[in-house]
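no rush on this but wanted to send it before i forget. theres a chain ive been looking at and ive put its sequence and its fold in token form underneath. i want to understand how the tokens follow from the sequence so walk me through it. thanks a lot i owe you, the record is right below:
>
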Amino acid sequence: MTAPAATTLIGFPPPLLGEKPLRLAVLKADGSGGVALEKPAGVCWDGDEPGAPGIVAAVRLQLATGKPELCACHLQNPVSAWPLETEIAGIGLLAPRGPACERWRNAFGSAQCTFTFEFLAANDDGDATADAFSCALPVARHDRLARALISHSTGKKSITHFRRTARVARWSWWEATTPFPRFHQVRLHAAENKLRIAGETLYATGDIPTLAQLSPRRCLNKGPDRALHDGICLRLREVDCSGANIKGWEKIIAPEPRKWAVLRERLSANNPGIR
């Protein structure tokens, strides 16, 4: 049997993933139980927060009801192959519990995949940040709070490679790659190197571009000014799985969310030639 097309959408009625219905796109499926889903920002992936509904648990519930879109993916007792933070959009991977998932988890734990994140950061006055650099500060998870910290005594080995892809007015687009993304690693490493990710409030204070800032003469036709993005402007854009040597899973790419596309278009309109 063939796997569903990349445009397949799986619906989750309330209250499975919140008070509103939600539809998640299937980014990739191999027809034997492996399924990559597009997770939106603000939705818990694997129930790692008390009281927060998780996508993995919601998928299991939908499977129990015989939802056709999920049955077509041949999912059986799915579990998560790697963690994914609630605050950001990105790529979540489900695999059947047992050897298939263990193979993915071993690949993740052995740093056989490369995770590429994308974010928008504010340019500070006199910004002299290099266009490419790496940060290898050890990252630890706080034992009481939902945050990470740099610790040379309890932190674990971590590395993030940063690359600026474009400057647009007061902001820059960046890529961040790592073979093993620890909890809040990209956000913490960015803040430690004075990169203020737009919408960041935990490790730094990052401004979010507003409609007035990107409008001619900074004026609006009607209504109050508003931010062009909700929450932190960071997402897991791509996972290169070629190092894992799992047939058919060389690369997984998440399309740009609609609000990101609007933000990029607004920034580009004020900076012709920048895309």
User: Anything to note?
Assistant: Residues 1-6 have pLDDT under 50 and may be disordered. The helical segments are 55-64, 68-71, 99-109, 185-192, 258-269. The chain has five helices and 14 strands. Residues 114-275 form a domain with the Pseudouridine synthase fold (CATH 3.30.2350.10).
